[in-house]
Structures are given as C-alpha cells and as structure tokens.
Amino acid sequence: MLLVEKSVLPEVFGKVIEAKQLLHTGKASSATEAAKLAGISRSAFYKYRDTVFPYIKPESEKTLNLQAVLLDTPGILASFIAVIFNSGANILTVNQNEPVGGSALITISLNTAQMRLKANDLLLHLKSLNGVETVLYSAQ
To answer: Which stretch of DSSP H or E encloses residue 118?
Structure first.
C-alpha cells in the first residue's frame, strides 16, 4: 500500500473514485452508468475498482460507543435516537437486547465527525430523557 498525492497519479484513478461514489450514493444504478458519468470506460472501472480508495483523514472519523439501559416503554428508543440525530452525529450501528425485568440494554456506535455537541453534553441530554436508566460511553 502507498499513500500518494492525487495530482501525480493518472486521471483515471480519480475518476474510478468518482464512479464508486456515484454507485455508493445511488446516483448511478450500475457500474456501466457510473463509469460513463465519471468519464471512463467500464473496463477501466473494473480494472481499478478494488485497488483505488479515497483517503479519509483519521481525525475526521471519530467513533463514540454508547451503552444505555432503557425502560421497556413505547417510544423511548425513538426519543433516544432523535437526540442523537439532533446532535449531528451519524449512527453507525444499533443493537438492542430483548427487555428483561422491564428494561433493555442498547449499544450504539456513532461517527462524531459532524456532531455539534461535546460528548459530555450529548450524554447529559440522553440521561435526561424519561425512561433512560443509565448511559455510558467510550470514544475511539
């Protein structure tokens, strides 16, 4: 593996990344359409698609893992997720255990790159919800 400045590479590599993004976002429904929109041949797309990837700076991708115990009441999980949504965080995974004794354990992983709150402030908002028994978090 090498990390190389895009400007010194053949133009086709950037266009392969563009085609992959078109497929990922649904702006293209097939590899043929994505390649055409990106301005490359389908064969060039297939030749490089599994070997060319965009670089994402690690500091822009921060993960926050939440673990909470919620009462088994209608709407509490939706309210919990709404607070996360309103913070600007992107939910990566959600896992909810089956309720036992009137409460359920949930774990949620978040991408905080676009989050408008500090983790402690998000935690306070979540803890203040009626039906939330505990909330813990760890950052990666």
So the answer is: none
